[in-house]
Design brief:
Layout: H1 7-18, H2 33-42, E1 47-51, H3 57-68, E2 77-81, H4 89-94, E3 99-101, H5 106-115, H6 125-129, E4 135-138, E5 144-146, H7 169-180, E6 184-187, E7 190-191, E8 210-211, H8 214-227, E9 232-235, H9 244-256, E10 263-267, H10 274-283, E11 285-293, H11 297-302, H12 309-321, E12 325-332, H13 339-352, E13 356-361, H14 369-374, H15 400-421, H16 428-449
Parallel strand pairs: 1-2, 2-3, 6-9, 9-10, 10-11, 11-12, 12-13
Antiparallel strand pairs: 3-4, 4-5, 7-8
Helix pairs in contact: 1-5, 8-9, 9-10, 12-13, 13-15, 15-16
Length: 450
Amino acid sequence: MKPYPPLGLLYLSAWLDRHGIANEVFDTTFSSKPALYEHLHSNPPKILALYTNLMTKLNVIGIIRSLRSQPVFRNTLIVLGGPDVTHNAQAYLDTGADLVVIGEGEQTMLEIALSGENWQYGANPEEVFGHICGIAYKQADGTLGQTAPREKIRDPDLLPFPNRRKIDLQQYLDAWKRAHGQSAVSISTQRGCPYTCKWCSTAVYGQSYRRRSPEHVVDEIEALQEQYDFDLIWFVDDVFTVSHKWLAAFYAELEKRAVRISFECITRADRLNDEVIDLLKACGCFRVWIGAESGSQRIIDAMDRRVEVGQVRAMIRSARRAGIQAGTFIMLGYPGETERDIVETVDHLKAADPDLFTITLAYPIKGTGLYETVEESIAAPAAWDAHTDRDLDFARTYTRQYYNYALRWTVNAVHLHKARLAGKQLTARGLLLAFKTWIARTGMWWQRLL
């Protein structure tokens, strides 16, 4: 129960509003498919734009097929955008979409809206939209047609704030408040990431880094504080402290306007030091997520993370000493990972002692370096329209069942270590953790023998 609104769609809506294009946002977060279909039937849209990622893929396909089966939507132009469409454009068009937007969508969506006003079923998309950069469509022979890439927005200060008034943001704040006692909003200060981690998708923003000015970001914060009552901010940026100069200017702007905030963000250990951590604290950071992914330097190097595992541990400890909660991310099952690497990861978590950590089994997203590395060994998945990349598996060092046990061992072993540090290993919870840890470790051993 930590929902955030769809900032991407809200940016598109704001851009269309600025240019006089009437639009509305149907926010599915607190809604349902029947409500969506009822809404669409009440006023069939000329253009329907759907955001598509690994989490929404199957729902998006279902919506497209449902609409395509109903004559009332015969002349509705269906446009898809988001990270999952870039490397699957043909497949999405084959499901019934008319256009796929590749890359940043603001200007592309505006041009589609201006050109598609009189779109009719059976029209040639190349003739109507072929002049628009950053799109894909079906050509007359059914093959993929794609226009020149859309130039990235160089100055993100030119973008209006996300069009939050088009949704009921209070529903998000209330959900947070009921579940956690505090409410949160999300803000984006940058686009793109300059780093090259092989498992990470750059399908929308590419290998780039563009930052809004500190003044523009604080303008948005002040506007949010005037309109809503919230407690926390989640900065959605990939690497919040990538620029120390920007962070210092952001702090200066907050101080200049006497704006007080409490926020969490993501960063990298190599973009932290004690001075930056103190600056984060002064800005209002209460939690920082520091990427690690593995406690094995060999695996980190294979991921092209370009960071030292010892530096990650040091920065987690430094953040906690400064009074900032530290979280970290862990990924098991990367190609070539052995049990020794997993043990090093557990030892790393014990030594770093983060307040929080998340853990996942590596999966190959199409278009990433990881996907290219394992493509030939990917197990035959279900039909494309029945799975997402999260479901893909490949030839790993051990069986899938082994990694199920390894995930459980990592979580329980680290929590047992924390219980021991707190002197609670003999409590009911401590004993249960010890039992779960033993079961998981035994399962790993057994699966390794099979």
